[in-house]
Design brief:
By secondary structure, this protein is mainly alpha-helical. The chain contains one helix and no strands. Helices cover 39% and strands 0% of the residues. The model has no long low-confidence stretch (mean pLDDT 82).
């Protein structure tokens, strides 16, 4: 037999679900004020030529 009643298990599951939801929400929005939003990207100067080598540091799948 379990040490908890059915009502206690349901209550603990509800609280756990709420806490997980809060943790996920915090993880998604933490430090999001530094995100680059649409419309905030700098428009490159057309008189400056593009780099011939792309900077891909931090963008690999390895």
């Amino acid at each position: 037999m379990s040490a908890f009643t059915t009502d206690q298990l349901v209550t603990m599951a509800e609280l756990f679900s709420i806490l997980i939801g809060i943790a996920i929400t915090w993880a998604v929005f933490y430090d999001s004020e530094n995100a680059e939003l649409p419309g905030e990207a700098k428009i490159p100067d057309p008189s400056i030529p593009d780099d011939m080598i792309s900077d891909t540091r931090g963008r690999t799948l390895r």
